Structure prediction request, 212 residues.
Amino acid sequence: MLPVSRQLPRFSLLNSDVCLPLCVTSGVVVLAVSAALQELLPCDLSILHGNKKGSRLHLVIAGGYDDRVPENRECYDALEALVDHFGLKDHVTFLRSIESSEKLQLVHDCTALIYTPSQEHFGIVPLEAMYMQRPVIAVSSGGPLETVLDGKTGFLCDAHEDRFAEAMKKFIDTPSLSRTMGTAGRQHVIKNFSFQAFTRQLDDIVRKVASS
Prediction:
């Protein structure tokens, strides 16, 4: 559980496909997480605005925040302004500078995770999410190109609001997609990025070098 001071609306696994706030009869919870809030796309909110099914979607935006950093303040203020402008306060939750334990709880409780940094390094968050059987929606650059299998364990998108909105909408239209991609994601991580996988790969490299 999250500390009371930072607690989200209670989430419950009401079925095996999606997690949702208890106040919603059926829905999708999407988590957007980043090391710094300015790396999150404000336009991720576009899927909520003007979507007749928007009431089924709850977006949690979580990331590192330092009030001393102008970019952090500007991005947070812009995101809050967008939420107010479109009347989405009931569908968006902001969490700033979360602890690792909170991040893992959020990943566990979400339907899909959005990872928006462009030209990111390898990045551990997508692997954590996939290991926890959660699909990842990420920018098609940097680390996610190596870790996320587009269309199988999540979606790789151009850094544009429409592409992210389209990917998020897939989980609204097909709730079972979260389970299917989540299962594939865990298998992908275990096969290619586990300690055993790295041990096997290193052993293969050493054997090839020794025999050459």
